[in-house]
Design goal:
- By secondary structure, the protein is of the alpha/beta class.
- The chain has 13 helices and 19 strands.
- The N terminus is likely disordered.
Length: 469
């Protein structure tokens, strides 16, 4: 039975009066078990006699006698004017330890794909949230629109055109919870009948979610100029590319290959899906514009704030051909179950106010300095290792001599460095070792400033052990 405070001081209690004996004995046992089990914390004020008696359907004296017995035993305390409380000296049992299912994390986190969590623009976000909530219409706090908030779609239209060369309109943008959500929706719309072409090196997670949707993936080789689009298999319904910064090998898609991908799409009736995962972070020159701007009716641009702000926000977007907007919205459903409307409103304000641009510029400078430090230290401590790809993004690939990847992973792990091998990202049907060969994928964005230098020192020490100084 549940006991409430009847409007007076105290707490709601769930008590099972099932113990043997009379009602008083059952109440004593139930209260004692609630305290012993930690459901009633030390200092918790209990309901008055009258309230608890009325809710439990027992006599007031039954409650008074139960309280008095527990006070005498030391489970409860009672003072005039302060009511009856759980005794402070009564502690809940310590939780039983659970055997860990995974080893503890290594102290030096150089795993790719994660921005610096300490750099999240808290003040700018809070300011934008206050403005956005004050200006939001009442309907913003109702059932969500599966297209996404109109304020965010308008702000993205302007921002993506200005920064990424994207040609779209608010009614052709669908807000989602990130790149994975976008791919799941597109897989649902395109269906499992035809395979997708994917780059021979890419996220296993993306290949896995396509497989979950029943879609076969066919690898397309990559080199220093990006994906070899001339080799896109003809049966493919779509090709998934990372043109601005091939993930993870690091090369941009060559201009001729950009044109070749769109030519393939026009001739085959296929679709180019452009994962613009870190297109804003180019350090050696201005970022290259999106492929989508060359042919918006044959390209879906997928973006998110996972790299620029935080993966915790769960906000992404798709810039869609006009023919796909309706099917994607239908696949998403009538209600918006994924992205918070208040977060969407806040991001719209952050974009419109220019605060997002300022944050990206600040992070671009920070990440460039980190990449430069990685390159310089490797040249000094492990000169046999070459950093490949363009100066961009939140990770770098360290090219290793053939046959040394596993040994390098083991040596760096012994020094407490969490890092990944390039082979992890190779499509299982791609040739081994593939065009890219052996290497480590090093993320340089995540470690706090005070730990970044020690992480690099440990990484270089592990590489020097395998390759020699």
């Amino acid at each position: 039975m549940t006991a409430s405070d009847g409007g007076g001081p105290g707490v709601d209690l769930h008590l099972e009066l099932s113990a043997a004996g009379g009602r008083r004995a059952a109440l004593v046992a139930a209260l004692r078990e609630a305290v012993r089990g930690g459901r009633l914390a030390p200092g918790t004020r209990l309901p008055p006699y009258r309230s608890l008696a009325a809710d439990l359907g027992v006599a007031r004296n039954t409650v008074a006698d139960a309280y008095a017995e527990l006070v005498a035993e030391g489970w409860l305390t009672s003072r005039q004017g302060s009511g009856t409380r759980v005794a402070e000296r009564v502690a809940a049992p310590a939780p039983r330890s659970v055997r860990p299912t995974a080893p503890p994390p290594l102290p030096h986190d150089l795993v790719q794909g994660k921005p610096d969590p300490a750099a999240f623009p808290r003040t700018a976000w809070a300011t934008a949230a206050r403005r956005a909530l004050a200006a939001a219409p009442h309907e913003a706090f109702g059932i969500g629109d599966p297209h996404g908030r109109t304020e965010l779609r308008h702000a993205l239209t302007e921002y993506l055109a200005r920064v990424r060369g994207v040609r779209t309109a608010p009614d052709r943008i669908v807000v989602c919870s990130g790149a994975a959500h976008a791919l799941r929706l597109l897989a649902r719309v395109l269906g499992p009948a035809d395979p997708w072409a994917v780059e021979a090196y890419g996220l296993p997670f993306h290949r896995g979610l396509l497989a979950e949707s029943g879609i076969t993936t066919l690898p397309v080789a990559v080199d220093g100029d990006g994906a070899r689009v001339a080799d896109i298999p003809r049966p493919a319904r779509a090709v998934l590319l990372t043109p601005a910064h091939q993930f993870p090998t690091g090369g941009p898609l060559h201009p001729e290959r950009r044109a070749g991908a769109l030519e393939w799409a026009r001739e085959s009736g296929g679709l180019v899906i452009e994962d613009d995962y870190d297109g804003e972070f180019r350090y050696d020159r201005r970022p290259v514009g999106a492929v989508q701007g060359l042919d918006p009716e044959r390209t879906v641009l997928v973006g998110s704030v996972s790299k620029s702000l935080s993966p915790a926000l769960r906000i992404g977007w798709m810039c869609l051909p006009s023919t796909l907007v309706g099917p994607v919205v239908a696949a998403k459903g009538e209600r918006e179950p994924h992205s918070s409307a208040t977060d969407q409103l806040t991001l719209a304000d952050l974009l419109a106010s220019g605060a997002y641009d300022r944050h990206v510029r600040r992070m671009r400078r920070r990440y460039r300095l980190r990449r430069d430090r990685l390159t310089a230290l490797l040249a000094e401590r492990a000169p046999a290792v070459r950093v490949t790809g363009i100066a961009a993004g939140l990770h770098a690939v360290l090219e290793l001599p053939p046959g040394t990847e596993r040994a390098a992973l083991a040596a760096t792990a012994r020094r407490g460095v969490a890092v990944e091998g390039l082979d992890l990202y190779r499509h299982p049907d791609a040739p081994h070792p593939g065009v890219a060969g052996d290497g480590l994928v090093v993320g340089y964005a995540t470690p706090p400033e005070r730990l970044y230098e020690p992480a690099l020192e440990a990484l270089c020490a592990g590489l020097a052990e395998v390759l020699g100084a």
